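Put briefly, the fold is written as integer tokens. The lines below illustrate.
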Amino acid sequence: MRVLSIDPAIRNTGYAVIEGDHYSARALEYGTFSLKDSLPQSACLLEIHRHVLSLIDKWQPDELAIEGIIYVQSHRTAITMGSARAATIIAAASRGLPIMEYPPSCAKLAVAGRGSAQKEQVAFMVRALLKLDETPEPDAADALAIGFAHLSAADPLRAHLFAKRRYI
């Protein structure tokens, strides 16, 4: 299975393309798509949409995995994060991809063994599990963890760990 995974944000969207299964996964591409602070939010959403479409066209993933809504204290932050998610979801839906969302705790559980792992632990474990040459930036590491969680959830022996995942 090949999965495109996204950690959406309005300025720094993490992305990863992972192939394989829980036992033998490899990262084909990953990184952070960063946009300038001077760019209006509407232009950022368009760029996120375009970037996701370009990744889909380049890698032809079977499915898209995206980070679920997280609790934030600011309504404004929640709205901008939701907008970035929407740009990603619309891009994937327009290409007919099945879309699965995972709460951050599921991604952390998949790579670090506990849902409350710190960002540094997630990045370290993603590097080890996917045999990367370098520790990825935090947003890219989160996207890699989401992709790894998606591959893990496809394993019938581990699926029960991901009860909070859902198709959207």
Notes: The helical segments are 41-59, 75-94, 104-112, 119-129, 138-153. The chain has a mean pLDDT of 91. Residues 2-167 form a domain with the Nucleotidyltransferase; domain 5 fold (CATH 3.30.420.10). The first strand starts at residue 2 and ends at 7.
